[in-house]
Amino acid sequence: MFTNSRRDVAFPLIGAVTLFALLFGGGLMYQTILGNGSAQRLVTTMLVDAIIVIGIQIYVGNTGILSFGHIGFGAIAGYVFAVFAISPAEKIKRIPMAPFGLTDVEVPPAVAIAIAVVITVLFAVVVGIGLARSGAQSGSVAATVITLALLFVTHEVAKSWPELTGGNRGGISFAIGASLQGRWPIVAALIGALVIARLYGQSRSGRLAVAAREDNLAARAMGVNPLVQQMVALLLSVAVVSVGSALRVWQIGSILPDRFFFAYGMLTLVMLIVGGRNSVTGAVLGVAVMTAARELARRLGQDGFEVFGIGLDGAPLDWIFRENLNSVVLGVAMVAFMIWRPNGILEDWEFDQWLYRRVGRRTETKPGRLPALDVIPDAQFSASGISVSFGGFQALSDAGITAESGEVVGIIGPNGAGKTTFVNVITGMVKPSGGQFSIDGDQLTGRPSFELSRRGLVRTFQNLRLFGALTVRENVETAALVAQEHRGHRTLRDVESLIAEAGLWDHRDRRARELDYGNSRRLELARAAAMAPSFLLLDEPTSGMSDSESIAMIEQVRHMAATVGAGVIVIDHDLGFITGISDRIYVFDQGSVIASGTPTEVQANPRVQAAYLGSAAAR
Amino acid sequence: MEGLLQNVIDGLGRGSIYALLALGVAVVFGIMHMLNFAHGELITIPGYLTYWAFNNGWNWFTVIPLIVVSAVLSSLLIERIAFSRVRGATDFTMLLTSFGVHFIVSAGFLLYVSASVKPIPRPGWFANTLAMGSLNIEIFDLVVIGVTAVVLAGTTWLLQRTMFGLALRAAASDFDTARLMGIKSDSVIRGAFALSGFLAGIAGIFWIMREGQVTPTAGINPMLQGVLAVLIGGLGSLRGAVLGGLVLGLAEVLLRSWLPLSIQNLTTGFVFVLIALLFIFRPGGLLSVPQVERV
């Protein structure tokens, strides 16, 4: 089982409510102790900021793409909300020339928020398509600039379209039919935001997005289309940010272009990264910490040490304690965290998952060994005439292999023989200039790699590509989630059995990046097996392993393949390993297949001896 | 026809400044893979020094070297204090570090100078025009275009014909291998930041003259134009950065002249829409650099 309703629904709900209680409770205590209006306003502001920061976390945290654009979306939502919610009497004064007859419109605030969300999400769809076209992935620079440009466009339009927005000077300051009495809309929205963020984080889409964040290429090789998951994350995230932004406008009672621009973008980003952008707990912590730090800085800037009840005239630190100190604090916090703790205070620690591991895993028992499949589903892989040239260099010419389910086919050849290029072609990473390949006659040539793995051709990587921040279990689950949707006609092995099978049971809740080399290799194999592949493509599975480990690997590969009924295509340059594991072998040299047959046939072939073992062996 | 020619010259003048900024961003990106969101501060800092210098009786002849030198020094200083500590970090970390630096500098001026606009006198010849037939060409545009051409030629020579240029290009194409070949990473990176600062300094002279003022957030626009120009031209290409700058300048001026008067103040918005369309149909920019995915 890999959907666990306790872990993915019940505990996240508990977590969301707990986080809310901590933030809200802390705020209430602060305002009770100080007991003045400004403390109350500070707490309200913090709660609204929290909604927006959690909204941004849904996108930035799960996809790893830095976005400045969310505040731009916030501006859109804020203006839409304002324009719909202000009374016509007020609009006559502020924006009498509003287009589309909006001057006469007035709807209740809740409806205005809904309209703001819908309109903003429509914008997000367009922006999301642009981001996808730019090939957005974790840390993608082009994507970040696109979001930055969005922030500028919204700011520019807000400033230069005064008929609608009230422009730069007056803005829209307004009286909404019902002004924001009490905090219940904010409280409700905050709880909602937390619930959405946590449920999304544990959902199929959220977990696939995180996998792609950790390693885009490996995620695609596991059948994940990252662009789809990024779009889902973006739309959800923008919806939450829209609600938060509308509430922000409602609470402040006015909107100006600069309210949703660089300064606020900076504030929300710092809040997000200080606590730890990869977890919702981190986002909430960041909001609390930065609110406190800024308030302290503001008051130090105003009153110096008198904040602490120490009155010093001409205090030595007057050159620091100045007005606007709180904005410097933001910049310093950002740079300091990026230098010393780029993943924030909590990194990827999530409260409810921690709680689940403490409480929930006691009931787990180690599953027994998986039997081999009784009936191996019949499948046929064939590649023929594959040619690739890089510039003038012919890396592959007219190469081809066949493989059937249940057998292990080895590909061997010296360095530069074209083995890796061949793998890259049949996994969709390199487009061949000629030739084709198929599974059961189903043409696969030219398909994107995520589609190839969904059709049953699943690879591992020569230089390990695990989802480092995810646990062993989550790594395997990612593949299983894809298999559930696209490989349902095959026998799907459950995640825990596969983990036990790979000898990783005791490490199941450790992060993949903490594993040693051999365990990492075994995890990659288990992850690939979870896809219920028709063919398992192993790229140098023993590179970096000792001889005894290689021999153990042979047993492991054969057994793993048998339990999921997959054929194996294995590439290596280690003759001993390949002859030990393979039923049939293809020998590559200088881009072509020079021999094929059983291990004994191939070893006896003089051309192979000359090409692979060197002329000394051929003598 | 004359109108078009005039706009083209105007656009090239504007675009030249963007090109210089973009080239500076591209040089640093090439070597560190960091898109420098603090690049605009290399104009803000000299801007405030210029304001100070004029208040102390300096004139443009002495201020111009001040701008260039202070831009180079600021660039090196920022590298030393902040960017050298995140070398080799994830793209996400480097983006946010540079953004944080931008924010610290602008907040620093807010803290220690003030939020208000500080005026800077423009040179006497700034508004002069040169009549050529029916054309009225601004001297300023011609100067900008001329100086930029000389600076770009010099930079090309530096990159193509000197040992430093070779080291820089080698490091940009494969940093680790370049180090193994005996290129000192520190000096190449510092060289790249010095070059980036120098280019920003030249751009800064014209930017400051044209704006005639400085504010704490003065760096935002030059940063944005530089970064956008790099993307328009194609991330990873130095030629693309220059081309992107020129295209961006031309697009701004031509669009402004073609748009009907009533929506002219939305020019910037339309420029962004054009850029968005470019990204959608040609995601790699004008001179897109093929991205090889390492398996």
Topology (SSEs and partners):
The complex is a heterodimer of chains A (619) and B (295).
Chain A: H1 5-34, H2 37-63, H3 69-85, H4 88-94, H5 109-133, H6 141-160, H7 162-165, E1 172-173, H8 184-202, H9 204-214, H10 216-221, H11 226-252, E2 254-255, H12 262-275, H13 280-303, H14 325-340, H15 351-360, E3 380-390, E4 393-404, E5 408-412, H16 419-426, E6 434-439, E7 442-443, H17 449-454, E8 457-459, H18 472-486, H19 495-501, H20 517-529, E9 535-539, H21 547-564, E10 567-572, H22 575-581, E11 584-589, E12 592-597, H23 599-604, H24 606-613, H25 615-618
Parallel strand pairs in A: 5-10, 5-11, 8-9, 9-10
Antiparallel strand pairs in A: 1-2, 3-4, 3-6, 6-7, 11-12
Chain B: H1 2-32, H2 41-55, H3 60-81, H4 91-112, E1 118-119, E2 129-132, E3 135-138, H5 139-161, H6 163-173, H7 175-180, H8 185-211, E4 213-214, H9 220-233, H10 238-258, H11 267-281
Antiparallel strand pairs in B: 1-4, 2-3
Q: Could you characterize the architecture of this molecule?
A:
The complex is a heterodimer of chains A (619) and B (295). Chain A is α/β, with parallel strands linked by helices and 619 residues long. Chain A has helices at 5-34, 37-63, 69-85, 88-94, 109-133, 141-160, 162-165, 184-202, 204-214, 216-221, 226-252, 262-275, 280-303, 325-340, 351-360, 419-426, 449-454, 472-486, 495-501, 517-529, 547-564, 575-581, 599-604, 606-613, 615-618; strands at residues 172-173, 254-255, 380-390, 393-404, 408-412, 434-439, 442-443, 457-459, 535-539, 567-572, 584-589, 592-597. Chain A has 2 domains: 5-256, no CATH class; 380-618, Rossmann fold. A 6-stranded mixed sheet of chain A has the order 8-9-10-5-11-12, with helices on both faces. In chain A, strands 4-3-6-7 form a 4-stranded antiparallel sheet, covered by helices on one side. A two-stranded antiparallel sheet of chain A has the order 1-2. In chain A, helix 12 (262-275) packs across helix 14. The longest helix of chain A is centred in the first third of the chain and has 30 residues, at 5-34. Chain A is elongated. The model of chain A has no long low-confidence stretch (mean pLDDT 87). Chain B is mainly alpha-helical. Chain B is built from 11 helices and 4 strands; from the N terminus they run H-H-H-H-E-E-E-H-H-H-H-E-H-H-H. Chain B has helices at 2-32, 41-55, 60-81, 91-112, 139-161, 163-173, 175-180, 185-211, 220-233, 238-258, 267-281; strands at 118-119, 129-132, 135-138, 213-214. A two-stranded antiparallel ribbon of chain B has the order 1-4. In chain B, strands 2-3 form a two-stranded antiparallel sheet. In chain B, helix 1 (2-32) packs antiparallel against helix 10. The radius of gyration of chain B is 19 Å and the shape is globular. The mean pLDDT of chain B is 88. Chains A and B meet through helix 5, helix 6, helix 12 and helix 14 of A and helix 4, helix 9 and helix 11 of B.
